[in-house]
Write a structure and sequence with these properties.
By secondary structure, the protein is α+β, with helices and mostly antiparallel strands. The longest helix has 19 residues, at 565-583. It is globular. Residues 1-26 have low confidence and may be disordered.
């Protein structure tokens, strides 16, 4: 390696840069703008000056995070900084925010503080404002702090979420529920606007969700985290797919990705069919109704996650119309005869010919969408994202999203939880988890094992035991906060897998009335609710709503009298398990100790937090005997504490006693 080449490599590693005197070699003559060329032994590249970053062509012309451009020069942006975690005392919350502006670029500007969208008083002394606010009647408040009156300098607003709770929330204690918004409950008929197609809007909305929140439906299940569909406005047109006509009821064909106060003009005006474009899906309700839903959840200690579907937009989106250069063109589809592209070119292929795929290799595009995420959080006070289609977006975007949100909430003491969807195996799932990436992902390998062993019966229960103690089971993802599940909107319903009705996605399966099928569903729920990480309840799975593959797995929700006796019995068990999980943290914080497993039964202990919980499940017609010593203490049946338990050394699972959730007596 030539001396000047070695210098450049070392300079790159030390972030020193290479000056022109060391770049005389003809092998390194790349134009770099605000940067210097260096040769790494195989190719030329640009090492950018402080404040600059490389664009898609590798040229140092874009401003790095924390910098803005003035007269083609990147200057360090003034910043608002939360000085420390808010303090709550006697119902009053106090915190201070300082403006860091070393160049005096914000002279004459004001610092504005809003709570839940309403401006509140704050005391300013120099470049510091102090907020003291009454929080005695609120479970949570969200404070947005921004600079106003400074038009030529971009200063990121910050967001300070404050929970008024005695015990800090641990996301590992969450039970999450996915209420597929359009199919959950119709609370406001005024926003019903079906298109008259086979797979249409069915009326579920924010108002309906709020009614069920206030009625205690989620409290009864122990749910303290509610995931709702993407809230962005979607195409209001009829779309053809698989030979059928469909609406965007699922909310995955968005128009308004990128909406903020500053980009609102891009989305102004009427939609093609004279419906006004709004940032929020009108079939679900207004922005005000969304905020009311979030507040109703917060009043009950329920965190709210929004499906963040930003891999693509609908081709009718003003973003695609205004900036086609921001998308991966020409289009290469993942669908139809191009299924191989799901894995061959996952980050650039289009999910449909009407779904332009964002090119997140362009810094401007990443910033556009991250700014939208931050606007949505500040405006609605939500607590987390479920990030759709993770493996179809570059890691750099996922990192920008995580770090951009973390920076907006820095020092608040709260975590904005981002859980990803990567429909793949463990190795691929792990690639997107980390301190600068996702907090966790949905555990598809565990789902596959539960489906094969408990739900459809193809595998053996000892396979499940070997899985959870092996490299793919408990602890497989380190400190990541994963989510486990029995079903979601992309796979057939659990009860339909069990009943072997999972394949024909366009056939509405008959109601399942076989008791053995609900027994299997109960077994799966017992396992999930007594295992680490966040269990997800896909709406209706708590009682056994039927449905084959998408779209049959997205039927309208049922309540109360609409449930058959077996469904009501299953619902009662899941409600009981949800309550027990919160009362006995060993069920999710404990370490699993396997007792044994046979072909059709499994028994284990969950030990931790000063307690021991015994779990047994069986679908065998034959008695299943296990040796478990309780010493002289004995057991308490957590599912029925009135039961007297005499077994202390030998426990038998039978056809009638096929579930055990016992606690070792203190």
């Amino acid at each position: 390696m030539r001396a000047n080449q070695l210098f450049c490599v070392l300079a790159a590693l030390c972030l020193m840069g290479c000056d022109d005197s060391n770049q005389a070699d003809s092998l390194c003559d790349k134009a770099c703008g605000h940067g210097s060329c260096f040769y790494n032994g195989t190719q030329e590249s640009c090492l950018c000056e402080t404040g600059y970053t490389r664009d898609i062509d590798g040229f140092c012309g874009e401003c790095d995070n924390g910098y803005f451009k003035r007269k083609n020069v990147c200057l360090e942006s003034p910043r608002l900084v939360l000085d420390g975690k808010p303090v709550i005392r006697d119902g009053m919350v106090t915190f201070s925010v300082t403006l860091a502006d070393k160049d005096g670029l914000t002279a004459g500007g004001q610092i504005r503080v809003t709570r839940d969208g309403h401006e509140i008083d704050a005391t300013r002394s120099g470049n510091t404002v102090t907020v003291s606010d009454d929080l005695s009647s609120a479970r949570k408040a969200g404070y947005a702090i921004e600079m106003v009156g400074v038009d030529d300098v971009e200063i990121m607003p910050i967001y300070v979420p404050v929970w008024n709770e005695k015990t800090p929330f641990d996301w590992r204690s969450a039970i999450m529920y996915f209420a597929f918004t359009d199919r959950f409950y119709n609370g406001n008929g005024a926003n019903d606007a079906p298109l008259g197609v086979q797979y249409d809007w069915m009326g579920g909305d924010f108002a309906g969700l709020k009614q069920k929140v206030e009625a205690g439906y989620f409290d009864d299940l122990g749910v303290n985290a509610l995931w709702i569909s993407s809230v962005s406005m979607n195409t209001q047109s009829i779309v053809g797919a698989d030979g059928f006509s469909m609406s965007a009821y699922h909310s995955y064909w968005p128009l308004t990705t990128g909406y903020t106060e500053k980009t609102a003009s891009m989305f102004a005006g009427a939609y093609s069919n004279s419906v006004a474009i709004t940032p929020i899906e009108p079939h679900f309700g207004s922005l005000g109704e969304l905020k009311a839903l979030v507040k109703a959840c917060h009043d009950r200690g329920i965190r709210v996650l929004v499906d963040f579907a930003v891999n693509h937009v609908n081709s009718e989106s003003p973003v695609f119309i205004a900036h086609p250069e921001w998308f991966n063109l020409p289009a290469e589809l993942c669908t139809g005869n191009n299924q191989q592209n799901w894995n061959r070119i996952p980050e650039t292929c289009w999910f449909g010919d009407n779904l332009p795929d964002f090119n997140y290799n362009i810094p401007e595009v990443r910033k556009f969408v991250v700014d939208h995420a931050r606007w949505l959080i500040r405006t609605t006070d939500i607590d987390g994202f479920r990030l759709d289609a993770v493996k179809h977006m570059p890691k750099q975007f996922i990192s920008d999203l995580r770090l951009g949100i973390d920076a907006m909430m820095a020092n608040s003491g709260e975590t904005f939880y981002i859980v990803g969807e990567t429909f793949d195996g463990k190795d691929k799932i792990q690639q997107y988890i980390g301190d600068t990436l996702l907090h966790g992902q949905f555990d598809f390998p565990l789902y596959n094992k539960l489906r094969d062993t408990i739900m459809n019966g193809n595998g053996k229960f000892w396979d499940l035991k070997d899985f959870v103690i092996g490299g793919d089971g408990d602890g497989a993802y380190g400190d990541a906060i994963m989510s486990t599940f029995l079903g979601n909107h992309d796979v057939a319903r659990a009860i339909s897998h069990i009943h072997h009705d999972s394949e024909d996605k366009y056939r509405s399966n008959n109601e399942v009335t076989d008791a053995w099928a609900y027994r299997q569903l109960k077994l799966a729920w017992v396992f999930l609710m007594t295992s680490p990480m966040i269990p997800l309840i896909y709406y209706g799975d708590e009682f056994g709503l039927e449905g084959a593959n998408d779209p049959d797995n997205r039927r309208m929700m049922k309540f109360n009298a609409q449930l058959n006796p077996l469904q009501k019995e299953t619902l009662q068990l899941v409600q009981k398990l949800g309550q027990l999980r919160h009362q006995h943290p060993a069920m999710y914080k404990g370490k699993r100790q396997n007792i044994d497993a046979y072909e059709r039964s499994y028994m284990y202990l969950m030990q931790g937090e000063g307690e021991t919980v015994l779990v047994g499940i069986s679908d065998s017609d034959e008695p299943q005997n296990y040796q478990v010593s309780a010493g002289t203490k004995g057991w308490i049946n957590l599912l029925d504490e009135s039961e007297t338990i005499t077994e202390t050394t030998s426990i038998t699972l039978t056809k009638d006693r096929y579930i055990i959730v016992w606690k070792l007596k203190d």
